Fold:
Amino acid sequence: MTTFASGTDTLTRDALTVLQPGFTGTTAPDWLLRRLGEGLASVGLFGRNIASAEQLSSLTAQLRAERDDVLVAVDEEGGDVTRLEVRTGSSFPGNNALGAVDDVDLTRDVAAELGRRLAACGVNLNWAPSADVNSNPANPVIGVRSFGAEPGLVARHTAAYVTGLQSAGVAACTKHFPGHGDTAVDSHHALPHIDVPAEVLSARELAPFRAAIAAGTRAVMSAHILVPSLDRDRPATLSHRVLTDLLRRELGYDGLIVTDGMEMQAIAGTYGIERGSVHAIAAGADAICVGGGLADDETVRRLRDALVSAVRSGELPEARLAEAAERVRSLARWTTTAKAARPQPAPDPEVGLRAARRALRLTGADTFTPLTDPPYVAALTPVANIAVGDETPWGVAAELFRLLPGTETGTFSGEDAGLATLAAAGPRRIVAVVRDEHRHPWMSAALDTILRTRPDTVVIEMGLPQAPPRGTLHIATHGAARVCGRAAAEIITGA
Structure:
């Protein structure tokens, strides 16, 4: 068992226990190992920490050599948001593709295989699935991360995902409570508002969370959103009415409550991470996620000291901090016993590709003749949101090159994207790849320009398929994972 450093008092250990910090590099720095010895119980991993499955396994072993019951968390949704395969693109389609197929057995199988791979690398807490009902098509941060826009569909697939993931002994963290789907603002940048009546929220946003709780989700992540019908003053992460009155008492949830990243501007830009963390624990949160942007020992020290000072001043009840710390330890115990008590799911390396193929929606396929000559792939590329990041490759060019060597590609954006595409493509057949065309007027204008001159263009929508299908063949993939690109390339080439 882990032996804590002498001289670390109970209050300080509890304050460290509720933190989920990150770090830079692919090996654990000395300061992090020292904090694990002092009481830190969780570590969050991001794309910058992962180079390969073998390296990740070595890293988690290094952490467990210091503390054997450490919670190792990662933001691995599959689809557009991947950390395991951040440099190659995911082997799994994301939620929107699974919702488009609407086969709960398939969703459960995909999540089980994802969980199996995480567990094999030593990860035991996944900040997934997204249970947000994407009721606002203009949502800049959820989109294809959601199973869909219909609450019943999202609810049944959220439950299936939780069941599949946890069958591998990896704790699910259902997010973003009480629902981030009806926002037009990204909480990484500012504080979104959801101005809907409580009865609408209950029937729409809360339905998937009820399903996740019934399925036994071990963790729930709060959203940095203001919902005036629940609390007019404080965002959900900092709201006692949302976290304790609603989630704990009304919905009957007794597992771990984790905050979304506290360095996101919705909190950091309004309350600051220290005050925000104190308010979050007081409101009912049990774990403070920080480390996506702030990833150093100074951040851990600041948050630890803020929590300790708040207890000593009487602002934060010591019993509330102790309760939060115990929930963290309880989840750590569950991950240890769950993995030991149940057989791991049988490997199913092709389940992601099968799901991606089934998720395709084709328009014009009846009259389309597969390509035999290498085309020109024009990626009409929007700015990626922070959750997705800009280091994960997406599109179909690599897969088309594999099937049609000699395929060329270019990336275009802005008002001249259409003309630039035509000039770059020359006589080659054009495959235009878009992502959320309905949200980007310049993208629609570029397609207008391309299709006027080259009506034989193939159009692939790798975001939400909200714009009318067009092109000689239109393929909606419902996500931009690597397997989605492969499935689309197979259609284009008849492979």
User: Anything to note?
Assistant: The mean pLDDT is 93.
